[in-house]
Design goal:
This protein has about 475 residues and is α+β, with helices and mostly antiparallel strands. The protein has helices at about 10-30, 35-40, 70-75, 110-115, 250-260, 280-285, 305, 330-335, 390-395, 410-415, 435-440, and strands at about 45-55, 80, 85-100, 105-110, 120-125, 130-140, 145-150, 170-175, 180-195, 200-205, 220, 225-235, 245-250, 270, 270-275, 295-300, 315-320, 320, 340-350, 350-360, 360, 380-385, 400-405, 420-425, 430, 450-455, 460-465. The protein contains 11 helices and 27 strands. The strands form 5 sheets. The protein has a 6-stranded antiparallel β-barrel. A 6-stranded antiparallel β-barrel has the order 8-9-10-13-12-11. Strands 15, 16, 17, 18, 19 and 20 form a 6-stranded antiparallel β-sheet that branches. The termini are far apart. It is an enzyme of class 3 (hydrolase).
Length: about 475
């Protein structure tokens, strides 16, 4: 008698194996139902209203005929120069997402969701709509903390974003295009991403579908814990293209705690102008591989110069943590509280040295327009110092401010402005002080590039400065 296995056709054995294998694989896929049921009540929709002033005069009264030439260009309203006629406001509305981190009504979202808003409404999962006040905003990390008057609100559990691994499943809940509590899922594509205009955030890259309206919403791990705030997407169409970026929750909560306690964020400051280390530069400085941040210049009053850092040093580590790229240095120093000491590992003259540096604080808003508040919300990303009369005479210029530090990724950096440059004019307005610089950009909408005249190495040149839209 033949064994039973010889009586079963080979194709049937293969079919059973495929079905069993498929079932096993299906069982390994995550089920997000319990996560959504648990987390959805803590996710909110945020709607904002902003009144944008526009200057018009109703030139003709009811029943009066407007000439065809004027109607073709202006409709029934004639724009007038500032200071003339009647100001009228246009309301602009936007949508975003957020989540509750405290039962007493504290809500976390993106700074760009609420920037410039005159009215903010938070809609809860139970359909209640509550007006919200801004506790604080940090444009550098795109984090905002809001407060609504309510108690006993459902909160979300917070995870540890430092423990995230590439390939891990994650999910997002938000309001893309206004569709409340939409759920999307994917995996972590990369960690510690540095984006051009965000030097202080080690972004989490995912392939979770994120669209306009998702901004400020939570990113969850499979345990239902918030590990990030969905902040940006890479797109050429305006919609999702497979690349999404979230702010790690550990970074966001550090910012939120400072905003809640002080209303603002304090960051460490070295006072150095840095540049990337190319392969040729790495060889010339005695480095095996291109890494670290090359110190191109120093603020004469900064903590780095005071504590022994020199131009030409390559900073390769901060408190033992490697500086892989020059863009990593602002992030590592920025998270250090001013007044604390750090150990900088530098390469100098082919030898490695360790220097103790007491980190300073970014100078106040009068001379530091990088914070954005003093510049009407536009992130210039630079620090300037005023010129003495002797310096102006020596350079042969009547006005100007010297650029002490440029933040990598900021608007000034993208325009090509570098440390040591002298800003002579912005939009054809002479700049004789930091106050002049603040005033020159405070009323700019960001809709067009501004011509900036610089004085660099004995010659004059122009660059185009494009501010972030207000």
């Amino acid at each position: 008698m033949q064994p039973l296995r010889h009586l079963v056709p080979a194709w049937l054995v293969l079919l059973v194996a495929l079905v069993v294998g498929s079932s096993a694989q299906a069982q390994e896929l995550p089920d997000f139902r319990s996560l959504v049921e648990q987390a959805a009540p803590g996710v909110v929709n945020i709607s904002t209203t902003r009144v944008v002033p526009s200057r018009y005069q109703q030139f003709y009264g009811p029943g009066e005929e407007l000439p065809e030439l004027l109607r073709r260009f202006f409709g029934d309203q004639i724009p007038l120069p500032p200071g003339q006629g009647r100001e009228r406001g246009q309301e602009r509305h936007s949508l975003g997402s957020g989540f509750i981190i405290d039962a007493d009504g504290y809500v976390l979202t993106n700074a760009h969701v609420v920037e410039g808003a005159d009215e903010i409404l938070v809609r809860l999962n139970d359909r209640r709509e509550l007006p919200a006040e801004v506790v604080g905003v940090d444009s550098q990390t795109d984090v905002a903390l809001l407060k609504v008057e309510a108690e006993g609100l459902p909160t979300l559990a917070l995870g540890d974003s430092d423990g995230l691994q590439v390939g891990e499943w994650v999910a997002a809940i938000g309001s893309p295009f206004g569709f409340d509590h939409s759920v999307t899922a994917g995996i972590v594509s990369a960690i510690n991403r540095t984006l051009p205009r965000d030097a202080y955030v080690p972004f989490i890259q995912t392939d979770v579908a994120i669209n306009p309206g998702n901004s400020g919403g939570p990113l969850f791990n499979l345990a239902g814990e918030v590990v990030g705030i969905n902040s940006q997407i890479f797109t050429r169409s305006g919609g999702f293209m497979g690349l999404s970026f979230a702010i790690p929750i550990n970074v966001a909560m550090d910012i939120a705690d400072q905003l809640r306690a002080d209303g603002h964020v304090s960051r460490g400051w070295l006072g150095v102008v840095i540049q990337p280390v190319s392969r040729d530069l790495a060889e010339s400085f005695g480095l095996d591989t291109p890494h670290g941040a090359l110190v191109a210049d120093l603020d004469p009053e900064g903590p780095a110069r005071r504590d022994g850092i020199q131009a030409g040093d390559v900073i390769v580590a901060v408190d033992g943590e490697e500086v892989e790229r020059s863009s990593h240095l602002p992030r590592l120093i920025g998270r250090v509280s001013p007044g604390n000491e750090v150990t900088l590992t530098v390469m100098r003259d082919g030898a490695e040295r360790r220097l103790e540096v007491t980190v300073g604080a970014w100078p106040d808003a009068e001379t530091d327009v990088a914070a954005g508040k003093s510049a009407g919300g536009a992130r210039l990303g630079l620090m300037v110092g005023e010129l003495s009369e002797g310096e102006r005479e020596r350079l042969g210029i009547e006005a100007g401010v010297r650029v002490r530090q440029v933040e990598p990724g900021g608007a000034a950096y993208e325009a090509g402005i570098r440390g040591g440059d002298i800003i002579v004019s912005v939009d054809h307005r002479p700049i004789a002080s930091s106050d002049d610089l603040v005033a020159a950009v405070a009323d700019q909408s960001g809709e067009r590039a501004l011509p900036v005249r610089l004085y660099r190495e004995g010659r004059s040149l122009y660059v185009a400065l494009r501010l972030e839209p207000r």
